[in-house]
Amino acid sequence: MTRPNILDRFRPAGAPGPAGPVGVPAAGDQGPAVELAPVFAALAADVEVCRRLVDEARREADGVLARARERAAAIIAQARLDEGVERARAAERVEQAASELDARLLAHARREADDLEEARTALLPGTAGRVIGNLWSDQLRSPQLTEGP
Questions:
Q1: CA–CA separation, 76 vs 99, rounded Å?
Q2: DSSP-based three-state secondary structure for 25
Q3: Which residues, other chains included, contact 25 with Cβ-Cβ below 8 Å and sequence gap of 6+?
Q4: 114 Cβ partners below 8 Å, 6+ apart?
Q5: Can you tell me the distance from the alpha carbon of 36 to that of 43, in angstroms, rounded to the nearest whole number?
Q6: Pair 47, 32: CB distance under 8 Å
Q7: What is the dihedral of CA 31, 34, 36, 42, to 10 degrees?
Q8: In 10 A of CB 143, how many CB atoms?
């Protein structure tokens, strides 16, 4: 038996004359599977190569994905370690800022206290003089000093 050809599907056109079945499949019982079998047989090697390439690409993608997951886990673990350090640094900065503010407020309060002390000291002689003057004045006006014993 000869190998079927795609062109064998159709009968040759008949000679002129009465109408007849022209272009009707000659091998209708075998169907397209017989005609396509040689094509698929020729592609079988290429299909297998493609299947191997796809399998290899899947394995490679799985490896890349596994390495990426490991790297992501390492980054997350390092970030968790760094989190404690950064929190401590932030707390230290806040504490230092509060200490500096407290120092500035204390220095300002000391300056104000010194200014008040200077003002009090400057007013002390005059105030003491007035108090003593008032006391002398009260004593001099008092009848006990003018009368004698």
A1: 34
A2: strand
A3: 9, 10
A4: none
A5: 11
A6: no
A7: 170
A8: 6
Task: Report helix, strand or coil for 10.
Answer: strand
Which residue, 4, 35, 8, is CA-closest to 23? 8
* Rounded Cα gap, residues 130 and 58, in angstroms: 104
Give the Cα separation of 127 and 120 in Å (integer): 10
Q: What is the pLDDT along the chain (149 residues), one digit of tens a residue?
A: 566 666 655 655 555 666 655 555 555 556 677 778 888 899 999 999 999 999 999 999 999 999 999 999 999 999 999 998 999 999 999 999 999 999 999 999 999 999 998 888 888 888 888 888 888 877 777 666 555 55
Q: Which two tokens stand for residue 129?
A: 């003089």
Which run of H or of E encompasses 58? helix 31-141
> Using CA atoms, how far apart are residues 148 and 130, in angstroms rounded to an integer?
27
Determine the Cα–Cα distance for residues 125 and 44; give it in Å rounded to an integer: 119
Cβ contact 16:32 at 8 Å? no
Q: Six-digit token pair at 118? A: 């200077």
